[in-house]
Pyrroline-5-carboxylate reductase
Amino acid sequence: MEKTDIHIIGLGNLGSAFLEGLMTSNKEHSIKVYELDTSVLEVYEKKYPENDYFNSFDEFKSGVLILCVKPQSINEIFVQIKDKIHEGVLICSPVAGLDIDHIEKSISNKIIRIMPNLLIRNNKGFIPYSKNYENDYLDFIQSTLNHLGRTKEFSEQYFPVITALSGSGPAWFFLLSNELINAGNKLGLSNQESEILVNEIIKGLPELISDDVTYPDLISKVKSPKGTTEAGLNSLKNDSFDTIILNAIEKATQRSIELSKELKSE
Ligand SMILES: NC(=O)c1ccc[n+]([C@@H]2O[C@H](COP(=O)([O-])OP(=O)(O)OC[C@H]3O[C@@H](n4cnc5c(N)ncnc54)[C@H](OP(=O)(O)O)[C@@H]3O)[C@@H](O)[C@H]2O)c1
C-alpha cells in the first residue's frame, strides 16, 4: 500500500496529540514533523525515529498538511509556506477561529477544517469537521481521522460553539474535577484523599455513558428523594449553575468569533 505523507506543523499540545494518536495507526503513513523548538524535536526523534523531523520548511509535495500552531502565528506561517505547497496537498486546520474562506485567500487547495480535542492522543477523540471539497480526498477521514476518534461533518457556521463545547471541552471537566477536589479538601479530607475519590469517579464514568441514555436519566439513578445528592443539586440550582455554564460557553463561543475577525483583519 502506498504511504500517505502526513506533515504536522507545530508539536505543542495538539500537534503532539496528533503524532501520538497516529503512531498507533495501521494505515501506512510517512510522518514529517516541523517544530521550531529543537529540544522538543529531539524528544520525539528519540521516541519515534521512524519519522522525519525538521525545524524549517521545504516543499510540501503530497499528502496532508496539518496546521497545529496558535491562531496568532497562522498568518505568518501562511506567508512562509504558501508557495511551497503543491496543489494536490490537502490542508487540515484545527486552528481556532480560522475560517476556510480565510485560508482560501492564501491557498487554493482542498481544505478540511477540524475541531478535535486532546483525547485524540489516545484515539478517543471526537472530530467535528467541515470541508470545501466533495467525497473523502486521500481517504483522510476514513483512514486517518477515524483512527483518532469519531468524526462527524458539521456546517462551518457552528464551529464557534463546537470549539467552545468540544475543543475546549476537556477544560470544563478538569475545572469541575479540581473544584470537587478543593471542596473535599476544605471539608476535612487531605488533598490526596479527595483526589483519589474524584479521579476514580472520572475513570469509571465512561462505562455509564452511551448514546441512548440521557444525562437527566443518569442523574435520577444517583439521587433519591430528600437524599444527599438532591440536597447538592438543589444548591447548584439555587446558585444558578445553568447560567454559570451557559455564560462560560457563550464567552468561549464569542472568543472564537472574535479570533476569526482578528485573523481576517491582520
Ligand atoms: N490544545 C487543544 O486542546 C486544541 C484543541 C483544538 C484546536 N486547537 C488548535 O490547535 C492549534 C495548536 O494549539 P496548541 O494548544 O497545540 O498550541 P501550542 O501548544 O502553543 O503549540 C503550537 C506549537 O507550534 C510551534 N510553532 C509555532 N510556529 C511554528 C513554526 N513556524 N514552525 C514550526 N512550529 C511552530 C510552537 O513552537 P513555539 O512554542 O516554539 O512557538 C508550538 O510548539 C491552535 O490553533 C488551537 O486553536 C488546540
About this structure: The radius of gyration is 21 Å. Residues 100 and 198 are 40 Å apart (CA to CA).
